[in-house]
Write a structure and sequence with these properties.
The protein is built from 7 helices and 7 strands, in the order βαβαβαβαβαβααβ. The protein is α/β, with parallel strands linked by helices. Strands 3-2-1-4-5-6-7 form a 7-stranded parallel sheet, sandwiched between helices. It is globular. The protein binds NADPH dihydro-nicotinamide-adenine-dinucleotide phosphate. The site of NADPH dihydro-nicotinamide-adenine-dinucleotide phosphate (NDP) has 31 residues, from helix 1 and strand 2.
């Protein structure tokens, strides 16, 4: 009943929302979990506490995904604390909605640094410590499939980059027995979407927002031994929105 007993997971951006749900789910299924955060130490502490209350082991590490050295340090911290690394969930990401005319170079760089460069570097750092059977899961977005909302060009671009990056990295890591897959959620009820979720609901075929735990379930499948034949895939989970 605990498929991840004896395994260690790192969740980049695991303090709140989807990342926290993934961390709780992996811990419930037996993994020791390291979560990173950047701005909300109290949320990170809450997630660690929730995991400990369900009998698991967790540790929060401050690591800005825009900072290459911090990403590497977080992975080393996880390996030093728990002795190995088996699962990496690369979830940290930001959303800025602005029309093409309004995007400054600074904002463009910030989006790319966290949502694209940070994802690549997190995968690179984590893979370096994994053995055969290692599992890497990115959180992209259904915005990589359909960029249908004004102001979403840069966000969609970053998530499109994640989808194709995962294919290339999957090929590189296949000989080492490590799989890399990408989850593409649609609207999930989190802090990121709190001011837009009600407007989106009528457009979602299932007429509701997704729950973070629903993404946690897919993370658990992709982290499991069962998913071993799947690599380089992007799986959209969006209530049918991008259809
Ligand atoms: P939230 O804004 O609720 O949470 C974001 C998480 O990422 C927090 O744990 C936050 O840490 C962390 N984070 C943000 N920036 C950084 C950074 N620079 N370095 C380290 N950690 C960082 O977002 P969601 O849970 O909604 O989204 C998570 C992922 O899922 C994102 O990649 C997002 O693009 C993607 N996604 C979300 C959808 C949705 O509808 N919610 C839909 C499709 C994709 P802290 O608490 O310290 O700020």
């Amino acid at each position: 009943t605990q498929p991840f007993a004896g395994k260690t997971a790192i969740v980049f951006g695991g303090s709140r929302g989807i990342g926290a749900a993934a961390a709780r789910r992996l811990a419930r299924d037996g993994a020791d979990v390291v979560i990173t955060y950047v701005s909300a130490p109290e949320k990170a502490a809450e997630t660690v506490k929730a995991i400990e209350e369900q009998g698991g082991k967790a540790l929060a590490v401050k690591a800005d995904s825009a900072d290459p050295a911090a990403i590497k340090a977080a992975v080393i911290h996880a390996v030093e604390r728990f002795g190995q690394l088996d699962i990496a969930v690369v979830n940290a990401g930001i959303l800025m909605i602005k029309d093409v005319a309004d995007f400054s170079v600074e904002d463009l760089d910030r989006m790319l640094n966290i949502n694209v460069r940070g994802v690549y570097l997190a995968i690179q750092a984590a893979a370096g410590f994994m053995q055969r059977g290692g599992r890497i899961i990115t959180i992209g977005s259904n915005a990589a499939v359909r960029s249908g909302h004004p102001g979403s060009s840069v966000y969609s671009m970053t998530k499109g980059a994640v989808a194709i990056m995962v294919k290339g990295i999957a090929v590189d890591l296949a000989p080492q027995g490590i799989t890399v897959n990408n989850i593409q959620p649609g609207p999930i009820a989190t802090d990121m979407t709190s001011d837009m979720i009600d407007a989106l609901k009528p457009m979602i075929p299932v007429r509701r927002a997704g729950e973070p735990d629903e993404i946690g379930g897919l993370v658990a499948y992709l982290a499991s031994a069962e998913s071993g034949y799947m690599t380089g895939s992007s799986i959209t989970i969006d209530g049918g929105l991008a259809l």
